[in-house]
């Protein structure tokens, strides 16, 4: 099975600088997206530190380990890399007053023969489009999501909540961070969207689905998503990664011999 990657960022209509960052290493099936936060340009620093660190460190490990690495090995490498990046951002924030309190969300995908290992921190999201159906495959680490889970808000009320951008987990804010990590099946024709809340807050899931279904070319779909988010207000920076799986799935090993004895 082959993979096609495309990424895009946009400053939006309300911000002067772009605190979102993306990084790809297509050779090892690696995609990283981050949405920074903090005063001055600290959010921009945090997100760029994170994406650059992961692309360099995890990308190198994946190249050196190759297909021989087990899913458990890759999970461990992802955890260690994010933990090291978290420490680097946390230390930078605590040694430079300009960067005090900076942090960033994260969506981290590693595509392997066994599927997509997807990790996330914060409220940046991962979606899967399969047979015309769009499914969110991450769960926001946010106060709003906790209120929804507790039944304190309905989905309709959540649309107008003032707590939309209050994350309960971020990279670099504390000396440790927990990466939520899951393995997802990847089938031929599947398309994956990773995005910052500058996209998902501006467009309902069905609008995302319609745009993706109507535009099979990834660059065209990315441009249409950014344009639609800006037309809806563009209140934040916009970052997205699109990945499409094509071809045949890996053949399952046979547990029987196809020829009988004579």
Characterize this entry briefly.
This protein is α+β, with helices and mostly antiparallel strands.
CATH class: Alpha Beta
Helix content: 25-40%
Terminal CA distance reads: 38 Å
CATH architecture field: 4-Layer Sandwich
Question: Would you spell out the secondary-structure blueprint of this structure?
Answer:
Elements: E1 2-10, E2 20-25, E3 30-37, H1 42-65, H2 71-95, E4 103-104, E5 106-112, E6 115-121, E7 125-130, E8 133-136, H3 143-149, H4 155-158, E9 180-184, E10 191-195, H5 197-200, H6 205-214, H7 218-231, E11 238-246
Antiparallel strand pairs: 1-11, 2-3, 3-4, 3-5, 5-6, 6-9, 7-8, 7-10, 10-11
How does this structure look, described?
The chain is an alpha+beta fold and 262 residues long. The protein has one domain (2-246): 4-Layer Sandwich (Phosphatase 2c, domain 1), CATH 3.60.40. It is built from 7 helices and 11 strands. Helix 1 (42-65) runs antiparallel to helix 2 and helix 6 (205-214) runs antiparallel to helix 7. Helices cover 34% and strands 26% of the residues.
Features:
7 helices, five-stranded antiparallel sheet, 262 residues, Phosphatase 2c, domain 1, disordered C terminus, alpha+beta
């Amino acid at each position: 099975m082959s993979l096609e990657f495309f990424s895009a960022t946009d400053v939006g209509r309300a911000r002067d600088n772009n605190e979102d960052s993306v990084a790809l290493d297509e050779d090892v099936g690696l995609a990283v997206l981050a949405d920074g936060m903090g005063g001055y340009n600290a959010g921009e620093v945090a997100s760029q530190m994170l994406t650059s660190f992961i692309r360099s460190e995890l990308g190198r490990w994946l190249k050196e380990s190759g297909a021989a690495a087990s899913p458990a090995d890759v999970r461990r490498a992802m955890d260690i890399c994010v933990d090291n990046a978290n420490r680097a951002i946390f230390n930078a924030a605590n040694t430079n007053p300009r960067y005090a309190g900076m942090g960033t969300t994260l969506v981290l995908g590693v595509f392997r023969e066994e599927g997509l290992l997807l990790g996330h921190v914060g409220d940046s999201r991962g979606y899967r489009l399969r047979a015309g159906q769009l499914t969110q495959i991450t769960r926001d680490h946010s106060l709003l999501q906790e209120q929804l889970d507790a039944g304190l808000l309905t989905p309709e009320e959540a649309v107008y909540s003032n707590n939309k951008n209050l994350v309960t987990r971020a990279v670099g804010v504390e000396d440790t961070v927990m990466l939520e990590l899951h393995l997802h099946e990847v089938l031929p024709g599947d398309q994956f969207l990773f995005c910052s809340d500058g996209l998902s807050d501006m467009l309902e899931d069905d609008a995302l689905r319609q745009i993706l279904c109507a535009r099979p070319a990834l660059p065209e779909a990315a441009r249409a998503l950014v344009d639609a988010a800006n037309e809806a207000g563009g209140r934040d920076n916009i970052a997205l990664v699109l990945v499409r799986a094509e071809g045949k799935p890996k053949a399952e090993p046979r547990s029987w011999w196809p020829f009988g004895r004579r």
